[in-house]
Amino acid sequence: MNNIKLFATDLDGTFLKDDRTISNKNMEALRLLGEKNIIRAVATGRNLRKVKEVLNEHVPFDYVVFSSGAGVFDWNLKKHIHSQNIEKESAQKLMQYFVEKKLSFHAFYPTPENHNHWYFRGKEYCEEFERYFSFNNAFASELNSRNLPATELCQFLIIIPEDGKKFDAMKSEIEAVCSEIRVVRTSSPITAGFIWIEIFHKTVSKGNGVNEICKLHEIDQKETVGIGNDYNDFDLLDFTGHSFITNNAPSEIKDMYESAPTNENDAFAFITQHLVK
Question: Could you tell me the pTM of the whole model?
Answer without folding.
Answer: 0.92
